[in-house]
Amino acid sequence: MDTIFALATAQGKAGVAVVRVSGPRAFAACEWIAGGVPKPRESSLRRLKGVDGSLLDEALILAFAAGHSFTGEDVVEFQLHGSIAVVRSVLATLGSFDGLRLADPGEFTRRALENDRLDVAQIEGLADLIEAESDAQRRQALRVFEGKLGDKAESWRRDLIRAAALIEATIDFADEEVPENVIPEVTELLGKVQASLQDEADGAIIAERIREGFEIAIVGAPNAGKSTLLNRLAGREAAITSEYAGTTRDIIEVRMDLAGLPVTLLDTAGLRDTVDPVEGIGIDRAVERATKADLRVFLMSDEALPLEPQKQDIVLQSKADLNSSDLPGISGKTGEGVDALIDAISSVLIERASGVKTATRERHRIAIEQGISGIQAANRSLNSGPEFSDLAAEDIRTVVRSLDSLVGRVDVEHLLDEIFSSFCLGK
To answer: Which residue has the higher pLDDT, 51 or 386?
Structure first.
């Protein structure tokens, strides 16, 4: 296997830049450029020399022996001064050595998979951790990266294999000494796995929202103060405000962090009857997007709205500085009620986020739902009589294969290219 190298930190000028080298010639490369290799997992300050013997930089070097590194191979990391010129010269020098080449995107992580340092779910967790913008995204990604989903998949696999073995024993050794009735234990095992899978499936939808961000739509009639409220929440002039109705025609999105959760606020077109075809398109889009949003904030005025609040939606009196009613009031202009609105939104989202488990992607959810369907099919076969035992066993094996795809025990090559393409060169 080639020895690969790449800049592992962000491009551009910085205090420190890290160049990573991994593969069978990593230690030899360190010997060439630094005149020696530190003891594994110990650091050493050394002067780096170019091919012509010129000084490149003075760097802190870390070495990791195969089996004790991120990739599972011999790894050397050079902690350089973060100059663009220094990084460029060190990379050029490494590239001049035989057997070394620049890494492809995600290749370090792919080698960690191939060397059984990480499973596919952990790699997805690592990708999410790199992309995390909020504390909730960070915590969720770390759970997957630490192998929590793989641990659950292994537990499900163990119980399912036990259930299949019990059934197959009654088929293959019908004339031998086997338990007379294995159905109660098999049913218990399948029920236990199904309940756990259903729990994960329910939490996966929330986990996807944490990864991608909750959508909150601000809806109301024209001139209800939606854009002013959005600007107040965003802390900047994200939307155009005007005294003229129908100013907002397209959906304006603002990303925020509320209570550590990623949120996208949607400023939608004012909802009313209109003969303006362009405004009409904006209103149709507003209704569609608001309906799909995770939560809606209704700014009520004298005009009826073609959209009804759902459970947990927040209903407020718009322009509380000018109007009053029995509803809690809010004013984006003065700030009245804004803190209370933020608290209310945070409370709803925190409650929903509490149901998150370890399955975080649509791929996970689909595999788990296929597993649930397979268990249901196995139970139907078991309930149909002993002559359907072979079908029940095959149903269980199908469930095992479906759940094995979560961690990459079955062929997932079609997924790997997509996963690794999101990584940078140094990862």
So the answer is: 51
CA–CA separation, 312 and 294 (whole Å): 10
**Residue that wins the pLDDT comparison between 29 and 237:** 29
Phi-psi region of 78 (alpha: psi -120 to 50; beta: other; left: phi over 0): beta
pLDDT at res. 413: 53
- Residue-wise pLDDT for 68-126, tens only, equals 999 999 999 999 999 999 999 999 999 999 999 999 988 999 999 899 898 888 998 99
pTM: 0.72
Q: How many CB atoms sit inside 10 A of residue 208's CB?
A: 16
pLDDT per position as a tens digit, 168-177: 777 755 555 5
Helix axis angle for 362-383 and 148-172, nearest 10°, is 20
Residue 78's contacts (CB-CB under 8 Å, 6 or more residues apart) are 18, 19, 20, 21, 34, 48, 59, 60, 61, 90
Strand partners, 61: 44, 78
Domains and CATH numbers, the chain: 3-114 (3.30.1360.120), 135-209+361-407 (1.20.120.430), 213-353 (3.40.50.300)
Q: Token pair for residue 234?
A: 């965003």
- Amino acid present at 128: D
Neighbours of 390 (CB within 10 A): 14
Return the half-sphere exposure (C-beta side, CA atoms, 13 A cut-off) of residue 187.
Answer: 9
Ramachandran angles phi, psi of 169, nearest 5°: -65, -40
The HSE-up count of residue 309 (CA atoms within 13 Å, CB side) is: 15
Distance CA 399, CA 392 (A): 11
Residue 190 CB: number of other CB atoms within 10 A? 23
